[in-house]
Design a protein that fits this description.
The complex is a heterodimer. Helices cover 17% and strands 36% of the residues of chain A. By secondary structure, chain A is α+β, with helices and mostly antiparallel strands. Chain A has one domain: OB fold (Dihydrolipoamide Acetyltransferase, E2P) (Beta Barrel), CATH 2.40.50.100. In chain A, the strands form two sheets. Chain A has a six-stranded antiparallel sheet. Chain A has a three-stranded antiparallel sheet with strand order 4-6-7. Chain A is globular and about 35 Å long. Chain B is α/β, with parallel strands linked by helices. Chain B folds into three domains: 57 residues, no CATH class; 256 residues, Type I PLP-dependent aspartate aminotransferase-like (Major domain) (Aspartate Aminotransferase, domain 2); 122 residues, Alpha-Beta Complex (Aspartate Aminotransferase, domain 1), CATH 3.90.1150.10. In chain B, β4, α9 and β5 form a beta-alpha-beta unit. The chains are: A alpha+beta, B alpha/beta.
């Protein structure tokens, strides 16, 4: 298992060489509430750092999912279509969303590590 | 309580198909309908008139509506719809005309459209209006299509539309429908457009900014003239989402703030029925530079007669058959005439006073994250209630038990556990006081009887619905069982 990095928009990224797996954080799933729908890109699609790669809907709201790094979609967790609740149950595991083959892994440098993210959400919620 | 679907009702006497003997010879269905289309069994209910009347009267009694309950649904301006609007719309000269009648025979209707347009131009400062769009959303589309065509003709490369993070969801949707990329800018700490951030994202490729003013926090964008200059200097246009026009009536006009195109929800500000009570109407007004792009037809006057004019040079075309939802215009026109200039101003004043009254009375109980004086609506955050176990959703559901329609929840997105309250000008102080009392009571209940709030509503025919299941595996079809 690679190291976890976090975006301000509450996505996590797990680094495994040049493949970056992406999902949303436990804090994000709690804030969104029960997830009812996840819309993801197709394998081979290009994604841009900071731009939306998909949409997530809960009973409260619909939000965009932002790519933490630019590259091509290498893998998609298509099972989320029929099991959106996995994002609530296991956001860092079964609830993963896409894997990106990064153009430039150094882009991840701008993301937070776990203690920094903890501090960030502590500030956000107050 | 009778919760039966009418299709599940048994036959009653006398049946609906009873016809007294007449001298007219009856034909059998097989004499007039081809054999292959005939069905031996058609399981429709066969009820007497009384049973049908009771069934639908009962359903109407279960309804939650502005006519029966306080309806503080933020950003929706659920004001009372005066009954005189209905009387006017039902005048035979309006309700019984046919769109294929010759224009000579519908001069009165055309005059109404013409006059109504003049009035709205006066209220908003815009140059011309179209009444074709059948909803606010279609009005937005019409407005943005005009902006797109304007830039195309000017041969400017425009790719982006700027939208604040407090905007209505329809704004980015409309921009996307028109092929633009939406650029979302964060609000500043006071809840207004962040001018510095705006300056950073504006460049020559900005087609427009879409704004509501006051915004969805109920706050007036005080720096609107600076925003106007920033956008206009780069050749972009200003789009006004008229959802929140109510508190500005008679006080200021979108044209004075530099807006080039605006849509008005007649079903909000101008007291025509909402949603399923509709149909809606999204009047779209333009300044001079977009006049040539209006959808066709518009109503013009020559000598003393009115006519549909299709000769608009760069029109974006037709948006709806005939001339939009005409009887909705009759209602809105009636509303304007009845209020007059002074009445409109009073409307705006009372809408603002009512919202601020609620805000002041409840701010020590429910957090107000943007505490400035608000306009027509106030946004509370139920974060401290959530920490005690009851979320905004639970509080909204509990309000139903007290006979109050839930406010808008979880919007705008920048406020956590948001409850957005828009009382409108048509509510009495007694009603506002009742709402305030109930909100305080619910806050107390969260401390003393949390389950009561979490399980609400208790008094409705349908209790707390499983919204998660409804969204994850929706059951959209009724199927007959046990027949």
């Amino acid at each position: 298992m690679g190291e976890l990095r976090f975006a301000k928009s509450h996505e996590w990224a797990r680094v495994d060489n040049d493949i970056i797996t992406v999902g949303i954080t436990d804090y994000a799933q709690k804030e969104l509430g029960d997830i009812v729908f996840v819309e993801l890109p197709k394998v081979g699609d290009s994604v841009q750092r900071g731009s939306a790669f998909g949409t997530i809907e809960s009973t409260k709201t619909a939000s965009e999912l932002y790519a933490p790094v630019s590259g091509k979609v290498a893998e998609v967790n298509s099972e989320l279509t029929s099991n959106p609740q996995w994002v609530n149950e296991d956001p860092l595991g079964r609830g993963w969303m896409i894997a990106i083959k990064a153009n430039d892994s150094s882009e991840l440098g701008s993301l937070m590590d776990e203690p920094a993210y903890e501090q960030f959400i502590e500030k956000e919620s107050h | 309580m009778d919760k039966e679907n009418i299709f599940e009702k048994r036959e009653s006497a006398p049946k609906a198909d009873y016809v007294a003997a007449t001298g007219v010879p009856l034909k059998k269905p097989s004499d007039v309908i081809p054999q292959k289309l005939l069905r031996a069994q058609l399981p429709l209910p066969n009820l007497g008139e009384l049973d049908v009347v009771r069934h639908y009267s009962h359903l109407a009694q279960l309804n939650f509506s502005v006519d029966t309950h306080f309806y503080p649904l933020g950003s929706c301006t659920m004001k009372y719809n005066p009954k005189i609007n209905e009387s006017m719309a039902r005048l035979e000269g309006f309700s019984a005309i046919h769109p294929y009648q010759s224009q000579d025979a519908i001069q009165g209707a055309l005059e109404l459209i013409y006059d109504f347009e003049q009035l709205l131009c006066e209220v908003t400062g815009m140059k011309r209006f179209t009444f074709q769009p059948s909803s606010g959303a279609q009005g937005e589309l019409a407005g943005m299509l005009m902006i797109r065509k304007y830039h195309e003709i000017k041969k400017r490369k425009k790719t982006k539309v700027i939208i604040p993070d407090s905007a209505h969801g329809t704004n980015p949707a409309t921009a996307s429908m028109c092929g633009y990329q939406t650029i979302v800018i964060e609000s500043d700490s006071g809840g207004l457009v962040d001018i510095d951030k705006l300056k950073k994202v504006v460049d020559d490729e900005v087609a427009a900014i879409m704004l509501t003013n006051p915004n969805t926090l109920g706050l007036f964008e005080e720096r609107i003239l600076e925003i106007k200059d920033i956008i206009h200097n780069k050749g972009g246009l200003l789009y006004y989402d008229g959802a929140n026009l109510n508190p500005l009536l008679g006080i200021t006009k979108p044209s004075l703030m530099g807006f080039d195109v605006i849509h008005l929800n007649l079903h909000k500000t101008f007291s025509t029925p909402h949603g399923c009570g509709g149909p809606g109407a999204g009047a779209v007004g333009v300044g001079e530079i977009l006049e040539d792009f209006l959808p066709v037809p518009v109503v013009n006057k020559k000598n003393k007669s009115y006519y549909f004019d299709y000769a608009i040079k760069r029109s974006i075309g037709r948006l709806k058959s005939f001339y939009g939802n005409f009887t909705v215009l009759v209602r809105a026109y009636t509303y304007l005439l009845r209020l007059g200039k002074e009445g409109l101003l009073q409307t705006a004043h009372n809408a603002v006073i009512n919202a601020n009254y609620i805000k002041e009375k409840l701010k020590d109980y429910y957090e107000v994250p943007y505490p400035k004086t608000c306009m027509h609506e106030v946004v509370f955050s139920c974060t401290s209630q959530k920490e005690k176990g009851a979320a905004a959703l639970d509080i909204a559901k509990r309000l139903i038990d007290y006979g109050i329609h839930p406010p808008t929840m979880y919007f705008p997105l920048i406020v956590k556990e948001a409850l957005m309250v828009e009382p409108t000008e048509t509510e009495s102080k007694d009603t506002l006081d009742y709402f305030i009392k109930v909100m305080k009571e619910i806050d107390k209940e969260i401390d003393n009887d949390l389950e009561k709030v979490k399980d609400a509503p208790h008094t409705t025919p349908v209790k707390r619905v499983d919204e998660v299941k409804a969204a994850r595996s929706p059951n959209l079809k009724w199927e007959r069982t046990g027949v």
